[in-house]
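Q: Given only this backbone (479 positions), what sequence would you predict?
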């Protein structure tokens, strides 16, 4: 008799190791049908952006390869409705259950709830697991049982129960039982996730997009980077951060795997610097948790301020300025280097993300949503929770203790965090002839290589932004 298989629905958890839905399916000892469904119905207003699609394309290929090495394979489906595709697959395979790891974006939650209700009514067993967060967003609460809106108390509460327990390994060969007959499948290439342009290939070339590639980067973090993380993490000219963000975004690594590896490196060392670096790094992972906590409890925040209102802010409608910002031609070297790094690699250093975001909002007076959307389309790690947190921080209306009147000076930020100008030289070749003294503040006229003059004068722009914020403050809860 054919045994009814379990469908494991892969989404943002594209790995075999520490994948709780896959593990639970293996424990049933039934055949397993791993599936990826390409459908926008769980994405709401945020369908996957261009760079993220490129990353996903390669991540699916590598997942399929890993499954094949275990005697299984990835079944690929596409359609307007994930539920309809799953139902078809259940009808074709006679599956008894569908297991998946949860997502926490508002549209995904709504879609998944509807899928669970419908499949349960069909008599199919549905099981959902947490495979992408260290803490369930609803499990962390203030003493009054409310969600946190400030990071430090959230962090302290999390640290009272630090994530314990090692991550689980990948299923051994033989544990992934194949079904009697494989259902039909599209090829991954048929999903046309890559734009077929040199841009997509160029972005992908900057990343080893595979589970082993992600693990190599994690080992590098634990062996080398973590010792200097505290002192170097703000330096875009150095390879000082983990660059694990796209792997966490698509789940080629689980946060538990990362947490556990860094915590082990911490306990194995006698070096104070390494311990401090590990603590600082783990704290960043909690920022990611905090971002999800906020998105879960305040699902309107991808488009609405968390705090106060910026309705009275005199946002400019200046397409040309937006284009210059996107293209990295504002005439401010650190801003332009960041925007060009983003376009070329699908990633930008965190310090520079803060600088370019501040520049868009507070120097150009362009609405933060323009920036959030551009990042969404160009980041390989585009993540609704983290991106929303970052942009609301920049706009001064988010969950942070930073007052809105802190406005980055792009010149001094460059001088401080890229002291030799190496980062600017890497991404703005027009300025390579300049020395460390002038590279962040080239003379406004007659700049080398046709590099543009400053799009605005920072001092005047800052004063204008401050005046605008003062007006908003009177009308809202900005602090
Ligand atoms: C305007 C703006 C937009 C951003 N958009 C995104 C985004 O779409 N996706 C994204 O993953 N990150 C985003 N970030 C956060 C941060 O810039 C990136 O997570 C980080 O640069 C990724 O590089 P890394 O992996 O080397 O970081 P590391 O310094 O090595 O940090 C390790 C991990 O911690 C998490 N982390 C670090 N900093 C933050 C932070 N400030 N907020 C939340 N999580 C953090 C990430 O998962 C990261 O991979 C944004 C920040 C800003 C200011």
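A: Predicted residues:
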């Amino acid at each position: 008799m054919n045994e009814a298989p379990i469908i494991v629905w892969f989404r943002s958890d594209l790995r075999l190791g520490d994948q709780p839905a896959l593990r639970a399916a293996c424990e049933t000892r039934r055949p397993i049908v791993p599936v990826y469904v390409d459908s926008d119905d769980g994405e709401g207003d945020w369908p996957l952006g261009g760079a993220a699609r490129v990353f996903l394309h390669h991540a699916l290929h590598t997942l399929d390869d890993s499954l094949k090495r275990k005697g299984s394979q990835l079944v690929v489906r596409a359609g307007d409705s994930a539920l309809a595709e799953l139902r078809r697959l259940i009808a074709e395979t006679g599956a008894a259950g569908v297991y998946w790891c949860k997502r926490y974006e508002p549209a995904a939650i709504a879609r998944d709830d509807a899928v669970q209700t419908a499949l349960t009514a069909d008599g199919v067993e549905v099981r959902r697991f947490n495979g992408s967060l260290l803490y369930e967003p609803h499990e962390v609460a203030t003493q009054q049982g409310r969600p946190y809106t400030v990071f430090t108390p959230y962090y302290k509460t999390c640290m009272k129960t630090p994530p314990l327990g090692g991550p689980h390994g990948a299923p051994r060969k033989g544990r992934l039982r194949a079904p009697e007959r494989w259902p039909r499948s599209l090829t991954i290439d048929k999903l046309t996730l890559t734009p077929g342009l040199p841009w997509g290939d160029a972005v992908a070339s900057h990343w080893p997009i595979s589970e082993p590639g992600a693990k190599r980067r994690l080992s590098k973090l634990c062996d080398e980077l973590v010792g200097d993380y505290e002192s170097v993490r703000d330096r875009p000219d150095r390879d000082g951060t983990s660059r694990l963000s796209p792997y966490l975004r698509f789940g080629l690594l689980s946060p538990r795997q990362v947490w556990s590896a860094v915590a082990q490196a911490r306990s194995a060392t006698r070096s104070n610097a390494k311990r401090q670096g590990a603590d600082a790094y783990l704290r960043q992972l909690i920022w990611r948790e905090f971002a999800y906590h906020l998105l879960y409890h305040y699902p309107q925040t991808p488009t609405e301020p968390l705090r106060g209102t910026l309705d009275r802010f005199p946002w400019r409608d200046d397409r040309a300025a937006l284009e210059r910002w996107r293209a990295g031609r504002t005439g401010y070297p650190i801003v332009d280097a960041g925007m060009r790094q983003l376009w070329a690699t699908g990633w930008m250093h965190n310090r520079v993300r803060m600088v370019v975001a501040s520049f868009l909002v507070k120097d150009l007076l362009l609405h933060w949503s323009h920036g959030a959307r551009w990042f969404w389309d160009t980041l390989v790690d585009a993540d609704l929770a983290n991106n929303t947190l970052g942009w609301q921080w920049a706009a001064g209306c988010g969950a942070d203790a930073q007052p809105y009147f802190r406005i980055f000076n792009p010149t001094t930020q460059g001088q401080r965090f890229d002291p030799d100008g190496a980062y600017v030289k890497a991404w703005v070749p027009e300025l390579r002839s300049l020395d460390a003294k002038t590279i962040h503040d080239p003379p406004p006229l007659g700049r080398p290589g046709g590099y543009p003059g400053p799009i605005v004068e920072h001092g005047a722009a800052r004063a204008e932004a401050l005046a605008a914020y003062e007006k908003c403050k009177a009308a809202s809860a900005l602090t």
